[in-house]
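Record passed on here:
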Amino acid sequence: MKEKSYNVSIIVPIFNVEKWLTRCLNSICKQTYGEFEVLLIDDGSIDNSGEICQTFVSKDNRFKYYKKKNGGLSDTRNYGINRAKGKYFIFVDSDDYLTPDYVEMLYSGIQKNNVDAVICGISRVDEDGKILNNNCFNVTDKTFLSGKEIIELSFDNKSDGGDLVCAWNKIYDRKLFDNNLRFEKGRYYEDGYIFPNLFLRVNKAMIIHRPLYNYVQRNNSIIHSSMNIKKIKDDDASMLSWIDLFKNVDKKLYILSIQKYKNWIIYKWYENRKIILNNNMGNYLQKQYRLYAKEKYPMSIKSKIKDTISIINLDIVYYLKIILGK
């Protein structure tokens, strides 16, 4: 018997999320558009996540359950990509949940408008579902943008443009993952590695300025748990991958990525100075700042002063921030 084909593949990586998984999967079941398959990829859970998945599989033949050896979030997403049958991909984190028209809105957008990806706004919610804030990407009033324009918007920290980097809150044409473009394994901030590569392949994208994806901000999540040196090094590597990628591709994005990297170094030095110095990373970051400060671009007087001080010694900026209370 021929296996049923679906328009959309929803890939859900799972690891020890029994507390939140039912809410997530129920939100998928209740979608107003239903022509999709759901790939539940269990990354070696040792709680009851597997049993919860099996319950949904037994009730709904769109759900497929796979259990694999623990390999991390990127490896789990890649596992799903390699088995997905749909023309379009959606990634849903297993502790998050969707509004009922999420799939319908994103699928309709990508189908009717000849775009390669559709992005929607998000609601940040706490573990009980209370909305903390919404980000509908109102930094732009445009609906249709090029992939490069999306990347450019991601640099806008004032309006949480960084949320554009996340793998979820989007639907993708599967062709974007051709030639084995996959998530970087074994890294924190894995979305940061693939995002620019994906959107350089996007000719046209669409933004739906509505919060259709509920991102649950867990207190003990990977990103929000305590900082460590591997997180800093992985973030550093991600930043440098953007600089290397854009160097020979787009001058504006190249300069923006350098600006972001330099600001990140100052921020990390202020927030995580003790971790950086205790792990012999201080000299490296100081050299990196001086290296990329050689790239000249227009700056405000205030930025030039901060840049000059940071070139001399990042600790001066650190102590000035403490003295000035900033």
The chain has eleven helices and ten strands. Residues 251-278 form the longest helix (28 residues). The chain has a mean pLDDT of 94. The chain has two domains: 8-216, 229-324.
